[in-house]
Prior knowledge:
The protein is α+β, with helices and mostly antiparallel strands.
Amino acid sequence: MNFKLEFIFLVFILFINSCSAIPTKNQSDIKMKIKNIVKDGKTPGIQYVAVTSKKILINESYGLADIKSNKQMNQSTQLMAYSMTKTFIAVLALRLQEKGKLSIEDNVSKYLPALPYGSELKIKHLINQTSGIPSPIPLKWAHSSEVDKDFNEKAIFWKRIKENPELDFVPGDKFKYSNLSYATLGQVIETITAKSLFEVFQEEINGPLGISKNDLRFNYIEGQEYAVGYLKRWSMINFLKFFFVDSKLYDEYENGWLKINRHNVDYKAMGGLIGNAKTVAIFLQDLLKNDSKLLNSESKKLLFTMTKSNTGEELPMTFGWHIGELDNKVFYFKEGGGAGYHCEMRVYPEHDLATVVMSNSTTFDVKKFLNKNDHAVTEL
């Protein structure tokens, strides 16, 4: 090879290396950390994806999706997203506003006149968790997937509203997390569109993003790979499981992990999505783009704008996101966790980065995991 060819080859190699967003060492370190987490018994299996607006930086999966059958966790394995669902539903509501089907300033009573919360409650209060709707601990707010087809979500919704007939405070006065707020938002969306939440979700979220209806949905179907959820045997939440989980949902111990039987959350909009980190990352990546397929610039700005109370006090919530900080970098996050699963997704808009981790262990510390590995991804 002559000198000129050697020089061209060297320039080409340097160019390829410069295009790599994460140094090879960082990639290797992240892979090793993921393997060690599983080997140390923190979770049976894990998925971790990091993206920019233009490409995938990391897409790793490791461990077991099913301990008894020794089935491996892979990129296509699906897990329950639990409360990460809420951010998807917030984006869905903003899309419906763009199409003129609702306004976030609409009174909720316009669509649900039987709701006992008066005329001051608006759709925006449901989205940004300032509704004042009571927040009972969602003990056993899940049911076996075997009965999901016949489960009457609407009837159970109105039953729980009847049990919680008064607001805790004037809507907009302050922040208070409420699962019932998003259960209510789900009912509003179905009323407005005269369609099931999944039908609207398929049209407004999956469709524009090119996501198959089988890859992000609210129920289990044949032909898909699903991770079994687990509770660690020697954990506090396992000792207290009788209060949190219907006894029909837990099974037997497998290598120190209590198997959680397949189930669905009572209210889809509250936390019912089932998918994988790779698919969730498609959603996050779109929110990073200037030409988002889901939201126009005005809606996207609203999605990441800190909520203010009626008196102008800044609250730790946007339209669907909580607000955090890592190494002086602001990020927006949504955590999801319940019987057998724990996950969290983040967006760092100013740094063109989004990450998501999903695990099949209730007790896995997703926040600690992202703090450590997002740091490596950003090359800090």
